[in-house]
Amino acid sequence: MSNKDLWRLSATETAARTTAGDITATAAVDAAIARMETVNPALNAVVVSLAESARARAAALDKARADGAPCGPLHGVPVTIKINVDQAGEATSNGVVALKDMIAPANAPLVDNLLNAGAVVIGRTNTPEFSFRADTDNPLHGRTRNPWGDHLSPGGSSGGAGSAVAAGIGALAHGNDIGGSLRFPAAANGVVTIKPGMGRVPAYNPSQTAERGMLSQAMSVQGLIARSAADLHLSMPSMIRTDPRDPYHVPLDWKGAPLDGPIKVGFTKETYEFDLHPEVSRALDLARDALVDAGYQVEEVEPPMLREIGIEGYRTLMGEAKALMEADIRAKGSATIQAVFDEYYAQFPPYEGTELLQMMAKRSYYARVWSEFLATYPLVLTPFLPQPFFRPDRDTEGAEGMREVMGGSLWSYSMNYIGLPAANVPALLADLPAGPTPVNVQIVARRWREDLAVDASIAIESRLDTLSEALWSRMG
């Protein structure tokens, strides 16, 4: 492989080769920056290039290695950071024009964790305003495009991250997820992620002037998007390192104890009142067969109370958002994001007052129901969306558009509400009239067992392969 093609390497391959001395961190980073400069103008996934500082850091890593310093697990791996998380000296704009000059005084814990592991940040990726859409566009940086084509949204809110890593701009992309913001971009761009459970990755922005709402603290998590499921096993142990600035972080090891016997996987195609597209059904069958071939015991199940959890959870989140974010959205948001929130409120009427407090308390009941269910089935293979991924701006097209984007996403935000880990992995590339469309499936895991969901993703990927080569052949 020539130096110019090093951007094709996974994070695992890159770290192994830089640590062994087969390639330098400088070569790996230069290749990723060259790829970024080639494809990003058409995608607008990375909205702040950090090429100059990335090259300086790579050179410093090479010197440290030459001087005998130990290499971190992500030595020389190019990564991106989403613009809603603090990186010292950079604006944490969150896609909002009024926040374009809010410069972070220090790094968020996850940025420090990645840097301490040897990663190199090459750029910052786009998000919608307030990071609160399943699509990625904003008045500050503009629209991010999906590398598969303009027939597909790149997803949101970590749409820049998903588009970047799929296109070969860095082997890992940071993102976060309060209702699907890691998994929507993974599904849209045909890449893989794990939404960690509550408390797994330390979270804090030094630039913040107030604490987030209690439900946001419980539902929002930090994570990574990758092209290879194995890269999550490499990188997430660094992401979850404890930081005293997050007093609720849970300092558990990444990998838990092995389970006895074949792992039981609950399998469902349930999408409630939403029609299941034939290609989504086929993707689920392919994923199921891959798990059976890998030795998992797959059984059809009826998931407990999923629809109630999803609808009530999102109405509760909207209640907190209306109480705590409404003033900023109206004062600082564009007409587009205000209209999107109006439609959120129409489709998910916010709980308020005493009822809001009661529904926040009811989270524990729903979490207990699923905890008991997962005692029998440590993993559950589910749809992510009932239909293949939607087109750009679909959530701005009134009630029908919002129903497709968020109404059908019960399997997404329900897992945030009860704080469970959920992986998202591609199972096929559908040949649809609009154009080639990745179709991902979701794997829900027991609390604290993200590793089991990643193991299952690797089993699916091992049989069905990644979509990277097909995408890069199209992109040229």
TrEMBL record:
Q: Would the keyword Hydrolase be found if you checked this record's keyword annotation?
A: yes
Q: Which Gene3D superfamilies match?
A: Amidase signature (AS) domain
- Regions annotated as coiled coil: none
Note the InterPro entries from the entry. Amidase_CS (IPR020556), Amidase_dom (IPR023631), AS_sf (IPR036928)
Q: Which UniProt keywords apply?
A: Hydrolase
Q: Which Pfam families match?
A: Amidase (PF01425)
Amidase domain location: 28-451
Q: Which reaction does it catalyse?
A: a monocarboxylic acid amide + H2O = a monocarboxylate + NH4(+)
- Which PANTHER family does the entry mention? AMIDASE-RELATED-RELATED, GENERAL AMIDASE-C
Specify the superkingdom: Bacteria
Does the entry feature the keyword Hydrolase, yes or no?
Answer: yes
Q: Any signal peptide, and if so, which residues? A: none
| Protein name as annotated | amidase
Q: What is its EC number?
A: 3.5.1.4
